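Dear Dr. H.,

I hope your travels went smoothly. While you were away I took the liberty of generating a structure for the chain from your last submission, since the lab meeting agenda had it listed for discussion. I wanted you to have the full record in hand beforehand rather than looking at slides cold. The sequence, exactly as received, is reproduced here:
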Amino acid sequence: MKTPIQTLITAAAIALSAVTGAAHAQTYPAKPVSLVVPYPAGGLSDVIARSVNTTLGKHLGQPVMVENLGGASGSIAAQKVLNNPGDGYQVFQGSPNELILAPLAIASIKFKSEDFRLIQMIATAQIAFLARKDLAVNNVDEFLDLARKAAKDGRPLTYASVGPGSFYHLLGEQLSKVSGIPMIHVPYKGAAPAELDLMAGNVDIFLAPYGKKYDEMHKKGTIKVLAMLNSERLESTKAYPAISESKQLKDFTFNIWTGYFVKKDTPEAVVTVLHKAISESLGDAAVRQTLEANSQLLPKPQTLAAADKAYADGTSQFRGIAKAINLQPQ
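The corresponding predicted structure, in token form, is as follows:
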């Protein structure tokens, strides 16, 4: 039981915190805000950030600068945000890749998913089944037949990811598991270098968030888009089969979301300012048009409480997938 003095101290601390939070809200942001993207420039994550940052800066009244920092399945960038004060000047553009799966896969990562707070969902990406241009297949079933034969001959096919424990690593492992076909994982620091090696024929497939550029690359013949990991064809990608149209992988349906995060201890008043500005930015017609042009599916803006629940639910879901394939930290 607290003494009267302890109770008074606690009350004073709470009052001081409220005053400090209010002061933050009145002055935030007083300088440019950094939007930290956990992958190199040129990939879809970078495109998403540069579709939003200018408009977000207008709503905040300060420039929002995109900072690309790849490596370790995005955890290097995530850790940088955690190493800075929770004052709202470092906003992390994240997904289950970096904040949920990487801590489960990389032993050196010390942070937890719960160290971050989701402010707002930005977009959901369809997943494309990409293959190198000279792979002798034209659909998913032909790919599986070829992969099965290659594995039997002692020459397993390869799949790219953006790092160990990333969502795309898990997709490759899950593909191998459900098909019963051994394949070799080839990790990269981001989507852009993985794409370069796919185009160069150095890796066989890449299960990646779909961007409009993949349609252009497919038409030019630099890669093949074999399918989308959807349960049905969507209007934005109706030219490509849904994975449900295959005979061997009908239920292999997945997508992945992107959101804007801050450190968990960021003052509520600052979080509220950011939430309002991000939500308003997502309502901007130019932002929506650019994201949709890159085949992003745009969710309705969420309240902070709904965002908290979505992040908690996503954490539970992806931890379940990691457990199902027996993902072990390395």
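Two observations you may find useful: The chain has a mean pLDDT of 91. The CA atoms of residues 127 and 209 lie 4 Å apart.

With kind regards,
E. W.
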